[in-house]
Amino acid sequence: MVRISPRKLRGTWVAGYALDVHTVRSTYVGEDEYGHAVFDTQRSEMGDLLYALKYKGDRTVIDTIVDTVVDFIHRQKWSIELVIPVPPSRSRRSFQPVQVVARAIAAELKAVYCPECVVKVRDTRELKDVLDFKERAAILKGAFAVSRKRVFSKRVLLFDDLYRSGATLRTVAEALVEGGGVSRLFALTLTMTRRKQ
Known about the structure:
It is built from six helices and ten strands, in the order E-E-E-E-H-H-E-H-E-E-H-E-H-E-H-E. It has helices spanning about 45-55, 60-75, 95-110, 135-140, 150, 165-180; strands at about 5-10, 15-20, 25-30, 35-45, 80-85, 110-115, 120, 145, 155-165, 185-190.
C-alpha cells in the first residue's frame, strides 16, 4: 500500500473520491533536441504507480494499487456488488489499465467485474486536450449504453484511473443512476489533476 490523500468528488453518486492528486508539481526546465517542452515533474505515490502502469507498462505495480484501493474501500465501509470500469477512450489499445485494475479490485472485494454493464456505443474523440467541461459533456452525450438488467438495484463501484474534469465519470454515473436504476453508486479514481479542468 502507498500513502494517499483522498479528495472528495461531486456527482450523482452516494460517495466519490480520487485517492490522490496525480502531479504534486511540474516545473518547466526547457526544451529537448526536438523542441518539445521538458518538465521536472513530481507525482504523488499513487501518481507514480499509475504513470508506471499506464505509460511504462509496468504491471508489477498492480498489486500495490489494488491493495491501496481495497483498503480504502474497506475503511469507507462501502458494500459493493458490481465493479464497473469506465469504458476506455481508445478501445483498440491491447492493454487497458483501468480494466485490469478494476478486475483485480472486484476479485479482492468478491464482487462481480462487469465491463459489459456500461459500453461505449459511439466513438468520440480523445478528451485529454479538450479543457472545457461543457464541451467535454457535449462530446460524450449519448456515447454510453447501460445494461439495466445487469445493474438494476445493485450496489456499484464505478472505477477510473484519472479524474480531469469529471465529464466522463459524471456522464457514465448519470447513465447508471437514471437509465440503469442502480441502488447505490460509488465512484473512485486513482488520481486527479491538481486543478479540475
